């Protein structure tokens, strides 16, 4: 079935960007204008009826987002990744929420994190960020360090400026030392117990 499917995709959508990543995982690159057509074909003809995820990668140097729609067959045995490129400036694309209900929250997340406007999705309200007025945080031009320095402060009474690697190393050393000390103490008690038992064993032996 896969061979027939690949041939049909290559012929019908004029693309050779079809890749078998594993025996159960396939990927195709396609123009955005043909995206819905391909998704409908996979859903209606090849049983890819589950939308698992919509992912986004910011290719800022090329000026676009790479959106990947991940579909799975009903029996969960095969997965198809469909990747398409969209302009990253004032991105407005059609929603998939009418075809897949779960797309609504996926698009809502991408809208919040990348600023993509999904036309037709009526629920693009805040999901994780509250009263966010800055550049969407997963866009590559968002300066995380600058944002933290300009908008956040360390809570009084907390030492949040420690070197995390050094602190982790210190805590591991303390844990190791405590473990070794506990072992030494256990060995010491076992030795003392054995020493205390010797006279009793000798008395029993003499009594026999």
Short overview:
With 208 residues, the protein is of the alpha/beta class. The chain has helices spanning 2-13, 35-46, 103-114, 144-151, 164-207; strands at residues 18-22, 25-29, 50-59, 64-72, 79-87, 92-94, 117-119.
Which labels suit this protein?
five-stranded mixed sheet; Beta Polymerase, domain 2; 208 residues; alpha/beta
Explain what this protein looks like in three dimensions.
The chain folds into two domains: 2-146, NADH:ubiquinone oxidoreductase Nqo5 subunit (Beta Polymerase, domain 2, 2-Layer Sandwich), CATH 3.30.460; 170-208. It is built from five helices and seven strands; from the N terminus they run αββαββββαβαα. The N and C termini lie far apart (86 Å). The protein has helices spanning 2-13, 35-46, 103-114, 144-151, 164-207; strands at 18-22, 25-29, 50-59, 64-72, 79-87, 92-94, 117-119. The protein is 42% helix and 21% strand. The strands form two sheets. The protein has a five-stranded mixed β-sheet, with helices on one face. The protein has a two-stranded parallel sheet with strand order 6-7. The chain is elongated and about 100 Å long. By secondary structure, it is of the alpha/beta class.
What's the structural blueprint in terms of helices and strands?
Blueprint (H helix, E strand, L loop, with lengths): L1 H12 L4 E5 L2 E5 L5 H12 L3 E10 L4 E9 L6 E9 L4 E3 L8 H12 L2 E3 L24 H8 L12 H44 L1
Parallel strand pairs: 2-5, 6-7
Antiparallel strand pairs: 1-2, 3-4, 4-5
Determine the strand fraction and express it as a percent band.
15-25%
As for the CATH topology of the largest domain, it is Beta Polymerase, domain 2
How would you state the average pLDDT, rounded? 88
CATH architecture classification of the largest domain: 2-Layer Sandwich
Give the end-to-end Cα distance, rounded to a whole number of Å: 86 Å
Tally of separate helices: 5
Look at the structure and give the CATH class of the largest domain: Alpha Beta
Number of domains: 2
How are strands sequenced across the largest beta sheet? 1-2-5-4-3
Total number of strands: 7
What integer value in Å does the Rg equal? Answer: 30 Å
- Unreliable stretches: none
How many strands, which pairing sense, and closed or not: the largest β-sheet? 5 strands, mixed
């Amino acid at each position: 079935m896969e061979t027939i499917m690949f041939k049909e995709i290559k012929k019908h959508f004029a693309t050779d960007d079809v890749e078998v990543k594993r025996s159960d995982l396939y990927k195709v690159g396609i123009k955005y204008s043909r995206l819905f057509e391909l998704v409908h074909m996979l859903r209606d003809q090849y049983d890819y009826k589950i939308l698992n995820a919509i992912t986004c990668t910011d290719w800022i140097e090329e000026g676009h987002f790479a959106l990947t729609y991940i579909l799975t067959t009903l029996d969960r045995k095969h997965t198809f990744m469909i990747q398409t490129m969209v302009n990253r400036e004032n991105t407005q694309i059609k929603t998939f929420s009418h075809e897949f209900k779960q797309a609504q929250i996926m698009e809502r997340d991408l809208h919040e994190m990348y600023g993509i406007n999904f036309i037709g999705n009526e629920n693009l309200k805040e999901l994780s960020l509250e009263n966010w007025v800055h550049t969407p945080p997963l866009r590559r031009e968002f300066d995380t360090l600058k944002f933290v320095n300009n908008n956040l402060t360390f809570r009084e009474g907390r030492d949040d400026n420690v070197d995390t690697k050094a602190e982790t190393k210190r805590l591991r050393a303390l844990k190791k030392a405590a473990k070794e000390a506990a072992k030494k103490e256990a060995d010491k008690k076992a030795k003392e117990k054995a020493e205390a038992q010797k006279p009793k064993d000798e008395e029993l032996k003499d009594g026999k």
